[in-house]
Write a structure and sequence with these properties.
By secondary structure, the protein is mostly helical. It has a domain of 51 residues. The protein is built from three helices and no strands. The longest helix is centred in the middle third of the chain and has 21 residues.
Length: 75
Amino acid sequence: MKAILKFNLPEEKSDHAYAVAGLDALLTISDILSECRSKLKYDSGQFKDCDDATIEKVRDFIVELKQYRNLPELE
């Protein structure tokens, strides 16, 4: 089975850019969640100086949005 996305360029340039950036967006979300985990589990990472309760709320919000939007998990 094949899936092909076609765009009429330059009219659909933005739509094309959104489709191409999909994996990068998922990787960015994964990186943010990983930093949240580092803070909460090891008290390290980019958010080490932030409040645990705030990080938990941010993490929960991101996970909720991922589920709402049916974003796939990275394999």
